[in-house]
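User: Please fill in residues for this 727-position structure.
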């Protein structure tokens, strides 16, 4: 449970100052970097939009000359926002909220100015969308602190709307043309947004270090590896982040700023070393004694760069066996070191650096094992191993921050490939975009991680459109399935009404079968046509005619009874010859029941209420499996699926052992059946809670990895290190 907020060591104003000091310097530095690099993104955007550069050239040239004015305007506006917050007031974050007398108030504006304002609002939306979880965590922490000052999430100086307004006023202070300002703000939506997540994470971390965690009794626990079942013991193990990195980061925070700071905690280093020594003993691969050349970290990074840009054949050797990726990756690093004048068999690297290399190799092994990737996709994503190792060697934030640009790019690319068979044009275009992004990163990445930010921003723009189309497909499927379920619910209601009406009547079995098969659908059609009395009237007339025919035992009386069925048959859409054949067949069974019984199949006993579903889930669940599994349903599994939320992911394994990830997209308000779709929005199945529980017992449904592929893979690596003997 949440702890009581600590006694604040500061007043409200001083705490605002703490927030400002933690956020403002990195925010200003990030904005300065974005402004310095804006010219090329602006030119690229003009080219993509096929706009004439002429009207923009003067402003683009002035952008560099007026850099200081832009930065000063941004800095002064943010400083003003912090001063207003310290006074307990809310700064204006929307156009039209400016103080009286402001020249930027609400009113008629020129077209260029309107474009700038729209771009500013789009920037605020982009920041909020990209860093929603970080903002929620930060706002939740500040609410828990109860500072006694007014910092609402929408108007606080760190809010997306407030930062976007400062960007607007920064460019306005430079007196640039409106079209140039609009273009600059639009490009900030790509470049500036990417750097804000780490700033938010650092701000939250600094508050926690200063004032303590919000919940000292609730560290993040590792998620379940399997769907819970009876007999399972609840896991209380902390996740890899809590186990190794949280306390280490707090204790080692001051040392983190040094150039040679360790990127992994000592406890994890120890596990990696023990694992490496254990593998060497098992494989009899102890290195021969003798003079060895130890590569410095700089030389190791050069060797990794050589591997990064190596030919596809080299990478094919590394990725030939994804289960032995770690050893093959390290061997190729040693081979690339030969270009530095060192024989591969004589290469050595420090224990700390080798631990990082091993960790990244194991990380990709787990990613490839947990994700559903084709061979070509493995070869494409495998090209990222060398760049990610270079980042891991130099930047501890890769493991500490979910907002790290390299980590976010890897997650996004894995998500785009996971379960993507490339069966249609949209899927193939997405895979081509993944390939182009990886090739661009491999070619461009040297030292600056801004390449990761730019690559992710570019890919994300494409992926957002892909996901939007997939969501449209999902929505159409959900609407279609809801219509089917509504129809089934109506049919079930009319079937129950018919069953109640037939209770206590002496309707012949052939006539009863015809009514059960056709009357509920007829009643539903009449209700849809706003004729709700038509079906009950037809049923009442039919039952009276049947009673009369049974009393009179007259052929003409049976024909008169069958006339009541004619509207039902006609409404079903069948052709007249087919209806005539049905009538003749039913008539023969009614007037000559003994003769018909001799040729009829033996009666089938009534099925129990829990009989097999009429629609078998193709490739996932057969009727016989369903009936057998229903006899011993696991109550814990059943409860798990009953509480499954929309957006949850599961892995579905068909009878041919093909695996695809499915997201719970929709739950029927009528039957509570659940529709699962793949990443392209295509339907995998629609199943009930009981059907899912039976499939889970058969191994046809299992837990999907965490949606953050990096986080999930790190947990898999730690599990492997802690229990190396486990399969």
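Assistant: Residues filled in for all 727 positions:
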């Amino acid at each position: 449970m949440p702890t009581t907020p600590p006694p604040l060591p500061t007043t409200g104003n001083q705490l605002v100052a703490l927030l400002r000091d933690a956020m403002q310097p990195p925010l200003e530095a990030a904005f300065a970097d974005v402004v310095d690099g804006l010219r090329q993104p602006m030119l690229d955007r003009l080219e993509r939009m096929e706009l004439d550069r002429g009207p923009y050239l003067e402003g683009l040239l002035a952008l560099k000359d007026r850099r200081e004015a832009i930065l000063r305007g941004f800095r002064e506006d943010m400083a003003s926002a912090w001063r207003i917050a310290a006074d307990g007031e809310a700064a204006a974050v929307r156009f039209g909220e400016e103080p009286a007398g402001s020249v930027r108030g609400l009113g008629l504006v020129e077209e260029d100015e309107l474009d700038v304002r729209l771009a500013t609002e789009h920037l605020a939306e982009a920041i909020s969308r990209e860093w929603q979880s970080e903002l929620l965590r930060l706002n939740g922490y500040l609410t828990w602190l109860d500072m006694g000052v007014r910092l609402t999430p929408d108007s606080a100086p760190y809010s997306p709307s407030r930062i976007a307004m400062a960007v607007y006023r920064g460019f306005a202070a430079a007196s640039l043309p409106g079209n140039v300002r609009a273009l600059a703000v639009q490009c900030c939506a790509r470049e500036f947004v990417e750097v804000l997540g780490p700033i938010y994470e650092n701000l939250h971390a600094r508050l926690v270090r200063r004032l303590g965690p919000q919940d000292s009794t609730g560290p993040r626990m590792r998620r379940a590896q399997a769907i819970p079942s009876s007999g399972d013991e609840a896991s209380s193990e902390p996740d890899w982040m809590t186990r190794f990195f949280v306390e280490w980061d707090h204790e080692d925070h001051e040392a983190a700023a040094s150039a040679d700071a360790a990127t992994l905690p000592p406890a994890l280093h120890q596990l990696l070393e023990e694992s490496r020594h254990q593998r060497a003993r098992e494989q009899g691969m102890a290195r021969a004694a003798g003079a060895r050349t130890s590569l410095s970290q700089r030389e190791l990074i050069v060797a990794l760069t050589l591997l990064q840009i190596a030919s596809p054949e080299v990478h094919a050797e590394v990725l030939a066996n994804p289960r032995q990726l770690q050893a093959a990756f390290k061997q190729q690093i040693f081979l690339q070191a030969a270009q530095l004048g060192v024989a591969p068999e004589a290469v050595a690297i420090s224990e700390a650096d080798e631990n990082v290399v091993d960790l990244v190799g194991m990380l990709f092994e787990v990613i490839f094992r947990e994700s559903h990737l084709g061979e070509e996709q493995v070869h494409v994503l495998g090209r990222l191993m060398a760049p990610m190792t270079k980042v891991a060697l130099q930047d501890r934030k890769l493991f500490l921050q979910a907002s790290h640009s390299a980590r976010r790019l890897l997650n996004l690319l894995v998500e785009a490939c996971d379960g993507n068979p490339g069966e249609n044009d949209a899927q193939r275009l997405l895979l081509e975009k993944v390939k182009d992004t990886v090739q661009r990163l491999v070619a461009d990445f040297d030292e600056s991680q801004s390449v990761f930010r730019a690559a992710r921003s570019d890919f994300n723009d494409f992926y957002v459109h892909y996901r939007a189309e997939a969501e449209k497909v999902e929505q159409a499927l959900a609407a279609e399935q809801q219509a089917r379920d509504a129809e089934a619910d109506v049919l079930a209601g009319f079937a129950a009404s018919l069953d109640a009406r037939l209770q206590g009547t002496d309707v012949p079995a052939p006539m009863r079968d015809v009514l059960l098969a056709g009357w509920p659908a007829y009643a539903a059609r009449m209700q849809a046509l706003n004729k709700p009395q038509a079906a009950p009237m037809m049923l009442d007339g039919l039952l009276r005619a049947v009673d009369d025919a049974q009393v009179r035992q007259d052929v003409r009386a049976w024909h008169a009874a069958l006339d009541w069925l004619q509207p039902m048959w006609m409404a079903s859409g069948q052709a007249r010859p087919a209806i005539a054949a049905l009538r003749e067949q039913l008539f023969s069974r009614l007037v000559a029941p003994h003769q018909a019984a001799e040729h009829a199949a033996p009666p089938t006993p009534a099925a129990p209420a829990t009989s097999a579903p009429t629609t078998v889930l193709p490739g996932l669940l057969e009727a016989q499996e369903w009936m057998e599994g229903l006899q011993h349903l696991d109550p814990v599994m059943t409860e798990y699926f009953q509480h499954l939320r929309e957006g949850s992911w599961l892995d579905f394994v068909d009878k041919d052992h093909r695996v695809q990830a499915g997201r719970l997209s929709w739950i029927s308000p009528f039957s509570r059946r659940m529709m699962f779709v793949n990443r392209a929005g295509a339907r995998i199945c629609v199943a009930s809670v009981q059907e899912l529980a039976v499939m889970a017992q058969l191994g046809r449904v299992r837990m999907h990895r965490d949606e953050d592929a990096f986080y999930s893979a790190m947990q898999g690596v730690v599990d492997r290190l802690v229990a190396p003997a486990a399969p």
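For context: The first strand starts at residue 293 and ends at 295.
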